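Quick note —
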Amino acid sequence: MSFSEMEYSLKSRKSKKEEFLEKMEKVVPLGKWCELIQPYYYERGNGRPPIDLDIMLKIYLVSCWYNLSDDACEDMIHDSLAVKNYVKGVADATTLGKFRKLLHDNGLTEKIFKEQTDEFKANGIILHEGSVLDATIVDAPRKSPEIGCTYKYGQRRFGIKAHIATDKKGIVHNVLVTPANVQEITVAHEILHGNEQEIYGDAGYVGLQKRPEICEKYQDGSGEIELVKYSTNKKYLAMKKNPAVKFMVNLKKKSVTDPKLEKSKTKIRDRVEHVFLTMKHIFKYRRVRYRTLSKNSAHIHMLLALVNLTKI
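Predicted structure written out below.
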């Protein structure tokens, strides 16, 4: 132990960063995630011995929690004793970049997210009765490839869009990342698991029950589907009656007839906003860090896996 570490251990109180990292040390299933990554990790005997996998994974998690570049993450390990005590090792920026590329090329962040949600479902942490849908825009430079342009509150936005589905407690069970110009209602069927009894969403999902892919997904023996005219030129499949699922979508202000019903929907739907609060304000992920959609998708899957752990 150095003199600085001895002095640090005698502090009168812990910093918020130290408390957060101690909590994450307890809840992050580091051993299981290392088992997933180990078959793809570097083997000893080919040149310089690789850094221990658990140390590399901890360094990568620190970069996600504090939205750091590879160089900034290396600096934080040297500058912050709280981070240094959590990581218990050092890696340079180049090594971290190669490790992040290894995770992306093998789809490991998606596998980590899926294994975590499967475990939550098996242990009854994720509820199956209902799903809450929402999406958020993450800004990107205009010249970045694979981004889209959309308008929100009268402002032009460039970036990507993260579509998520949570249970009623706000735990994410499905994620889809698209360009920002993809409308939420068109990809809603891809993030629903199909066993819902209730589906909640904001005004962007009005008319969800009329989408052909939704009708086909939730058709059962007790439900009927018929082809109805939605407009003069378009025809949509619509649920004539289907007691298997209820669509509790908030209506637009002009269409509201029962304010109490809308308020009851909002109380449940608002829990999905806590996911975006954690991702954008606590983990500070407000702007894309990488150029391609697939790399940003991998990063968002990892972030949401970590967001779920903060709710346990």
